[in-house]
Amino acid sequence: LPEGGTRAWLSVLGVWLVQFANYGYTNAYGVYNDYYVRIYLNDRPASDSSWIGSVQWSFSLIVGLWTGRIFDQGYFYHLMAFGSFLSVFSLFMLSLSQPHQYYQIFLSQGVGLGLGIGIVYAPSLGLISHYFNRRRPLALTLAVSGTGLGGMIHPILLNALIYSKLGFAGAVRVSAALDAVLLIAALLLMRPRYGHKQGAALQARHVGFWTNLKNFYTDPPFVFTSLGLFISSLSILFPTYFLQLNAIKRGIDPKLAFYTLTMLNGTNFLGRLLSAPIIDWFGPFNSMTATTFCCAVLIFALQGITDAVGTVVFALLYGFFAGIYGGIAAPLISSLASDRSEVGARIGICWTAASISGLVGSPIAGWLLGRDFKWTRPIAFSGVRGFWVLHLETLLT
């Protein structure tokens, strides 16, 4: 493999743009959730708005089970072009949605945008393996940093435009146009390098996956780990989706509340960058146990936070520890593999489990919140699951 060169690093830049435009956009859903609950869909319970974001997030993960294999078969540009088009088209359709027309928003943002993001996610990251082996961790870290920066910029842009003269429709169209420009640039920069033995390797991985699947669930550490990720994903999106709404409902100045999601995503990005040395120092299981405990404690602490300083501190700390958690998950799963050929299958199974629980977790939190905005209920639900996960992880250490 080249391990560098102009073409390789331009491809990394293209992947960075994809992550910024697409997956970084999912981290801005808290802005939409706040607007939907208070204004655009205020005739419906908060759980309905949560379904939109959770479906979008789950589809962005589940679709990768199929697009990864299609990417291996040589259809990189087909996937990238179609997924990019679907993402931008769905955002423009969202801009045409009318207030209190739930199905229009759900189909365009939840289903359409979620599918579009999911279609391009795995192929774009998979492209890194065409150029890098020894330096792959560095290239991947640089590429996925687009998600973190996107999670910081998109909320600022959306909050500034939605509450301006442009309104909701104009704000969504501006963000759709921005994503279109970024995704077109990404398509021009990225170049796959398919080898002649790609098909044989794919067939070998396909057979190996089904051969080893039965063994995975007779492996207690893997069972506990996948169950822990399933439970944790029930509430992993709660702060991201509800922090801005929580801040506004507790009387914090909207000008500051609009930046809480940017703060959370900013330190989340920092936590992901630091997850690699943390794993080296403490090991994946010890690191996961500690970060799970910190996240659970912080969620419980949110109940007592009623001022601006506390909200800012929560956003910064929770984002940081959640970022470490996200950065540790894949290496933790990989460490359970007895052979390198199992890594992809094990990660795929765990992320599928996580996406299923993530699909229902935020709507449950929204349902518990209710129209009377009783924050004690979703906070207790989200915090308790953290200690259940902590118990499972201690069984592995």
UniProtKB/TrEMBL annotation:
Chain segments annotated as coiled-coil in the UniProt record: none
Subcellular location(s) per record: Membrane
GO cellular component: membrane
Transmembrane segment boundaries: 75-94, 106-132, 138-158, 170-190, 222-244, 281-302, 309-333, 345-369
Keywords from the UniProt entry: Membrane, Transmembrane, Transmembrane helix
Residues of the Major facilitator superfamily (MFS) profile domain: 1-397
The keyword Transmembrane helix is assigned to this record: yes
MF (Gene Ontology): transmembrane transporter activity
One Pfam family it belongs to: MFS_1
Membrane topology, as annotated: Multi-pass membrane protein
Major subcellular site: membrane
PANTHER family: MFS-TYPE TRANSPORTER DBAD-RELATED, MONOCARBOXYLATE TRANSPORTER
UniProt family annotation: Belongs to the major facilitator superfamily. Monocarboxylate porter (TC 2.A.1.13) family.
Protein name listed in UniProt: MFS general substrate transporter
